Amino acid sequence: MLNIVLFGPPGAGKGTQSENIIEKYQLVHISTGDLFRKHLGEGTELGKLAQGFMDQGKLVPDEVVIGMVEDKIQENLDVPGFIFDGFPRTVNQADALDKMLAKHDLSISGMVALEVPEDELRARIKERAKTSGRVDDQDDDKITTRIKVYQDETAPVAGYYKAQSKFNSINGVGSISEIFDQIAGVVDVLPV
Ligand code: ADP
Protein backbone atom coordinates (compact mmCIF):
# COMPACT_ATOMS: atom_id res chain seq x y z
CA MET A 1 0.00 0.00 0.00
CA LEU A 2 1.05 3.57 -0.72
CA ASN A 3 0.26 5.53 2.44
CA ILE A 4 1.00 9.25 2.37
CA VAL A 5 0.78 11.89 5.08
CA LEU A 6 0.06 15.25 3.45
CA PHE A 7 1.30 17.85 5.90
CA GLY A 8 1.25 21.62 6.21
CA PRO A 9 -0.27 24.58 8.04
CA PRO A 10 -3.89 25.72 7.61
CA GLY A 11 -4.31 27.17 4.13
CA ALA A 12 -1.27 25.36 2.70
CA GLY A 13 -3.35 23.69 -0.03
CA LYS A 14 -3.64 20.18 1.39
CA GLY A 15 -7.26 19.75 0.28
CA THR A 16 -6.57 20.96 -3.25
CA GLN A 17 -3.49 18.80 -3.73
CA SER A 18 -5.21 15.78 -2.13
CA GLU A 19 -7.72 15.77 -4.97
CA ASN A 20 -4.92 15.57 -7.55
CA ILE A 21 -3.03 12.90 -5.61
CA ILE A 22 -6.15 10.74 -5.16
CA GLU A 23 -6.89 10.89 -8.85
CA LYS A 24 -3.38 9.95 -9.93
CA TYR A 25 -2.67 7.24 -7.34
CA GLN A 26 -6.21 5.94 -6.57
CA LEU A 27 -5.85 6.51 -2.84
CA VAL A 28 -8.58 6.74 -0.22
CA HIS A 29 -8.75 10.25 1.27
CA ILE A 30 -8.83 10.49 5.05
CA SER A 31 -9.28 14.19 5.86
CA THR A 32 -10.07 14.57 9.54
CA GLY A 33 -11.30 18.15 8.97
CA ASP A 34 -13.72 16.94 6.26
CA LEU A 35 -14.86 14.01 8.43
CA PHE A 36 -15.59 16.37 11.34
CA ARG A 37 -17.45 18.79 9.06
CA LYS A 38 -19.54 15.86 7.78
CA HIS A 39 -20.43 14.84 11.34
CA LEU A 40 -21.25 18.47 12.10
CA GLY A 41 -23.56 18.70 9.10
CA GLU A 42 -25.31 15.49 10.11
CA GLY A 43 -25.62 16.66 13.72
CA THR A 44 -24.03 13.51 15.20
CA GLU A 45 -22.75 13.35 18.80
CA LEU A 46 -19.19 13.34 17.46
CA GLY A 47 -19.97 16.46 15.40
CA LYS A 48 -21.39 18.25 18.43
CA LEU A 49 -18.33 17.34 20.47
CA ALA A 50 -15.93 18.55 17.77
CA GLN A 51 -17.74 21.78 16.94
CA GLY A 52 -16.62 23.84 19.93
CA PHE A 53 -12.98 23.03 19.32
CA MET A 54 -13.18 23.60 15.57
CA ASP A 55 -15.03 26.90 15.77
CA GLN A 56 -12.30 28.26 18.04
CA GLY A 57 -9.50 26.91 15.86
CA LYS A 58 -8.33 24.49 18.56
CA LEU A 59 -7.56 20.78 18.17
CA VAL A 60 -10.22 18.18 18.84
CA PRO A 61 -8.91 15.83 21.59
CA ASP A 62 -6.56 13.12 20.33
CA GLU A 63 -8.64 10.13 21.44
CA VAL A 64 -11.66 11.38 19.46
CA VAL A 65 -9.65 11.92 16.27
CA ILE A 66 -7.70 8.68 16.59
CA GLY A 67 -10.88 6.59 17.03
CA MET A 68 -12.46 8.19 13.98
CA VAL A 69 -9.39 7.50 11.80
CA GLU A 70 -9.10 3.93 13.03
CA ASP A 71 -12.72 3.26 11.97
CA LYS A 72 -12.01 4.68 8.53
CA ILE A 73 -8.92 2.49 8.05
CA GLN A 74 -10.79 -0.65 9.18
CA GLU A 75 -13.51 0.03 6.59
CA ASN A 76 -11.00 0.30 3.70
CA LEU A 77 -8.37 -2.39 4.07
CA ASP A 78 -8.49 -3.55 0.45
CA VAL A 79 -7.54 -0.27 -1.24
CA PRO A 80 -4.28 0.78 -3.02
CA GLY A 81 -3.49 3.12 -0.13
CA PHE A 82 -4.47 6.12 1.96
CA ILE A 83 -3.76 9.81 1.92
CA PHE A 84 -3.94 11.32 5.38
CA ASP A 85 -4.83 15.02 5.22
CA GLY A 86 -4.91 17.09 8.42
CA PHE A 87 -3.87 14.02 10.40
CA PRO A 88 -1.65 13.38 12.34
CA ARG A 89 -1.68 16.83 13.94
CA THR A 90 0.14 15.91 17.17
CA VAL A 91 3.08 13.60 17.86
CA ASN A 92 0.71 11.45 19.91
CA GLN A 93 -1.57 11.06 16.84
CA ALA A 94 1.47 10.16 14.68
CA ASP A 95 2.45 7.45 17.14
CA ALA A 96 -1.14 6.13 17.27
CA LEU A 97 -1.28 6.05 13.45
CA ASP A 98 1.91 3.98 13.24
CA LYS A 99 0.49 1.54 15.77
CA MET A 100 -2.90 1.16 14.07
CA LEU A 101 -1.25 0.61 10.68
CA ALA A 102 1.20 -1.90 12.16
CA LYS A 103 -1.76 -4.01 13.37
CA HIS A 104 -2.53 -4.60 9.69
CA ASP A 105 1.14 -4.96 8.67
CA LEU A 106 1.02 -1.53 7.07
CA SER A 107 3.12 1.62 7.44
CA ILE A 108 3.44 5.20 6.23
CA SER A 109 5.39 5.35 2.96
CA GLY A 110 6.28 9.02 3.35
CA MET A 111 5.27 12.49 4.45
CA VAL A 112 4.84 15.29 1.92
CA ALA A 113 5.07 18.68 3.65
CA LEU A 114 3.80 21.81 1.89
CA GLU A 115 5.83 24.86 2.95
CA VAL A 116 4.02 28.21 2.70
CA PRO A 117 4.96 31.50 4.45
CA GLU A 118 2.53 32.84 7.06
CA ASP A 119 1.45 36.00 5.18
CA GLU A 120 0.50 33.87 2.18
CA LEU A 121 -1.47 31.45 4.43
CA ARG A 122 -3.45 34.32 5.93
CA ALA A 123 -4.22 35.76 2.49
CA ARG A 124 -5.41 32.35 1.19
CA ILE A 125 -7.64 31.66 4.20
CA LYS A 126 -9.24 35.12 3.93
CA GLU A 127 -9.94 34.50 0.26
CA ARG A 128 -11.38 31.04 1.05
CA ALA A 129 -13.58 32.57 3.79
CA LYS A 130 -15.67 34.25 1.10
CA THR A 131 -16.98 30.89 -0.09
CA SER A 132 -16.06 28.17 2.44
CA GLY A 133 -18.80 28.93 4.95
CA ARG A 134 -16.30 27.81 7.61
CA VAL A 135 -16.62 29.62 10.94
CA ASP A 136 -12.90 29.10 11.57
CA ASP A 137 -11.96 30.94 8.34
CA GLN A 138 -13.92 34.05 9.26
CA ASP A 139 -11.82 36.28 11.47
CA ASP A 140 -8.20 37.17 12.12
CA ASP A 141 -8.18 35.97 15.73
CA LYS A 142 -9.30 32.47 14.74
CA ILE A 143 -6.76 32.29 11.96
CA THR A 144 -4.06 33.43 14.41
CA THR A 145 -5.11 30.70 16.88
CA ARG A 146 -4.95 28.03 14.15
CA ILE A 147 -1.49 29.12 13.03
CA LYS A 148 -0.26 29.17 16.65
CA VAL A 149 -1.74 25.72 17.36
CA TYR A 150 0.00 24.51 14.21
CA GLN A 151 3.37 25.91 15.33
CA ASP A 152 3.09 24.64 18.91
CA GLU A 153 1.41 21.24 18.51
CA THR A 154 1.57 20.19 14.86
CA ALA A 155 4.98 21.36 13.56
CA PRO A 156 6.78 18.79 15.81
CA VAL A 157 5.08 16.01 13.79
CA ALA A 158 7.55 16.82 10.98
CA GLY A 159 10.39 15.82 13.34
CA TYR A 160 8.65 12.52 14.03
CA TYR A 161 8.80 11.60 10.32
CA LYS A 162 12.31 13.09 9.86
CA ALA A 163 13.49 10.64 12.52
CA GLN A 164 12.08 7.82 10.34
CA SER A 165 13.67 9.33 7.17
CA LYS A 166 10.17 9.79 5.70
CA PHE A 167 10.05 13.60 5.53
CA ASN A 168 9.86 15.37 2.14
CA SER A 169 9.53 19.13 1.83
CA ILE A 170 7.71 20.79 -1.09
CA ASN A 171 7.51 24.50 -1.90
CA GLY A 172 3.77 25.17 -1.58
CA VAL A 173 3.89 28.54 -3.38
CA GLY A 174 3.28 28.50 -7.13
CA SER A 175 0.60 27.22 -9.48
CA ILE A 176 -1.48 24.19 -8.44
CA SER A 177 -0.02 22.14 -11.29
CA GLU A 178 3.60 23.15 -10.57
CA ILE A 179 3.19 22.14 -6.94
CA PHE A 180 1.50 18.89 -7.95
CA ASP A 181 4.40 18.05 -10.30
CA GLN A 182 6.81 18.39 -7.38
CA ILE A 183 4.58 16.21 -5.19
CA ALA A 184 4.34 13.53 -7.87
CA GLY A 185 8.15 13.62 -8.19
CA VAL A 186 8.38 12.68 -4.52
CA VAL A 187 5.48 10.18 -4.43
CA ASP A 188 6.68 8.30 -7.53
CA VAL A 189 9.83 7.20 -5.72
CA LEU A 190 8.32 6.33 -2.33
CA PRO A 191 8.68 2.70 -1.27
CA VAL A 192 5.28 0.98 -1.60
P1 ADP B 1 -7.16 23.53 8.13
O1 ADP B 1 -6.02 22.68 7.67
O2 ADP B 1 -7.54 24.59 7.13
O3 ADP B 1 -6.97 24.10 9.51
P2 ADP B 1 -8.91 21.19 8.58
O4 ADP B 1 -10.11 21.01 7.76
O5 ADP B 1 -7.79 20.23 8.40
O6 ADP B 1 -8.47 22.68 8.25
O7 ADP B 1 -9.28 21.21 10.14
C1 ADP B 1 -10.30 22.03 10.67
C2 ADP B 1 -10.40 21.84 12.18
O8 ADP B 1 -10.80 20.49 12.47
C3 ADP B 1 -9.12 22.05 12.99
O9 ADP B 1 -8.86 23.41 13.29
C4 ADP B 1 -9.43 21.20 14.24
O10 ADP B 1 -10.32 21.87 15.12
C5 ADP B 1 -10.18 20.00 13.68
N1 ADP B 1 -9.24 18.93 13.31
C6 ADP B 1 -9.01 18.45 12.05
N2 ADP B 1 -8.09 17.47 12.07
C7 ADP B 1 -7.72 17.33 13.37
C8 ADP B 1 -6.78 16.49 14.05
N3 ADP B 1 -6.04 15.59 13.38
N4 ADP B 1 -6.65 16.63 15.39
C9 ADP B 1 -7.39 17.50 16.07
N5 ADP B 1 -8.28 18.33 15.51
C10 ADP B 1 -8.45 18.26 14.17
The description of the largest β-sheet is: 5 strands, parallel
CATH topology descriptor: Rossmann fold
CATH architecture: 3-Layer(aba) Sandwich
Q: What ligands can be seen in this structure?
A: adenosine-5'-diphosphate
Brief description of this entry?
The protein is an alpha/beta fold and 192 residues long.
Would you mind describing this structure in some detail?
This protein has 192 residues and is an alpha/beta fold. It has a single domain (2-187), classed as 3-Layer(aba) Sandwich (Rossmann fold), CATH 3.40.50.300. It contains 9 helices and 5 strands; from the N terminus they run E-H-E-H-H-H-E-H-E-H-H-H-E-H. A 5-stranded parallel beta sheet has the order 2-3-1-4-5, with helices on both faces. It starts with a strand and ends in a 5-residue tail after the last helix. Bound molecules: adenosine-5'-diphosphate. The site of adenosine-5'-diphosphate (ADP) has 18 residues, from helix 2 and helix 3.
Task: Present the secondary structure layout.
Layout: E1 2-7, H1 14-25, E2 28-31, H2 32-42, H3 45-56, H4 62-75, E3 81-85, H5 91-102, E4 110-115, H6 118-132, H7 140-154, H8 156-162, E5 167-171, H9 176-187
Parallel strand pairs: 1-3, 1-4, 2-3, 4-5
Helix pairs in contact: 1-9, 2-3, 4-5
The structure holds adenosine-5'-diphosphate.
Adenosine-5'-diphosphate binds at residues 10-11, 32-33, 36, 53-54, 57-60, 65, 86-87, 89, 93, 136, 146.
